Amino acid sequence: MATVIRETPADLHPLDLSRADLWREDQWQEPMRQLRAESPIYYCEDSKFGPYWSVTTYKPIQHIEALPKIFSSSWEYGGITVAGDGIEHLKEGEIPMPMFIAMDPPQHTAQRRTVAPAFGPSEIERMRADTQARTAALIDTLPVGEAFDWVERLSIELTTDMLAILFDFPWENRHNLTRWSDALGDIESFNTLEERQQRLATAFEMGAAFKELWDHKAKNPGKHDLISIMLQSDAMNHMSHEEFMGNLILLIVGGNDTTRNSMSAYAYGLHCFPEERAKLEANHDPDLAVNAMHEIIRWQTPLAHMRRTALEDTELFGHQIRARDKIALWYASANRDESIFPDGDRIIVDRENARRHLAFGYGIHRCVGARVAELQLTTLISEMQKRRLRVNVLAEPERVNASFVHVSPHAGRTRALLTAVTAGPISAR
Hints:
heme binding; globular; monooxygenase; oxidoreductase activity, acting on paired donors, with incorporation or reduction of molecular oxygen
């Protein structure tokens, strides 16, 4: 796709990748391309979040992710987004909410081990038939030949339903999960005292609902749901109220935004590259669907960055990093690093190394729920292939005004039209 380069206002740093406008207007590709070519480890001295290092290429990000003893994820130092300033610089109306992705070992290790079995291979197989049935049933309700909102009717519904299943959350209230995810995953919601107070109120609303579920599960434990699993763990059954809310935010935002955005990217991305869409329409080999799933996740990169904080003075590929320096790992850029993914701005559904993407992170903090996201997106692709349906996007999606969750269009923002695919024979293994 062609990129329109816009003139940057004088008061905005052209290479500050944390600028919300770059993501709202889908203009992040060119500055990242420039940094990859000229300064892949770049010190941005001035941003609304303070000075930070931008790392935009693949290998340095892997290097940093592999050294958690030097590059911390801890909430105490600011956590996993470029917005965080740590417990020493909390603003009025802000309270820390620790979550295991924003912890260092050994605390991270113990809590991650608690929830990891819920996303393991055996659990994925247990979910497979239900995921296929729910996806098929929902697709069959979509109007063919009429305009509708893809995000509202499909992306939100499928991901919200899966979240409710994972938590065994009251089904009739499940759409609160999406509302809480939208509010609590927004790093631009800390700007004013009023915004911080509203965010805190949302967090407490979520916490109260889950405390009720927690108390119910304490008396009536389940076997597979996340709340029951946490209750049965020494590492998580005595969490503070703030830590409880933090881990809920992690699991809800992680489970909602990554999959929802990838499902939206399936529609939008393949519409942008019709020749690649044609490959999936002509070839129903399950291996191609799986590869296409990885490629769409690579191209989309649902979380644009993760942040680390240096715990000591260190040298990073010729750059002197000082203790407590803030480092933004731009996964969205690494996933288009030309040295790893040639022609990376394009979706290529049969790309040989699509699985090497960093959209789920790398190392000890790799997304614990990655297999669930992969299952959901692959199932969507396969069920659309079976029905020989094509998504035609009618207008550009309206993107979120933030540099963390990437795209996350809300309901009412992605108009689509389903049409039947009639041309060409189908090949399948």
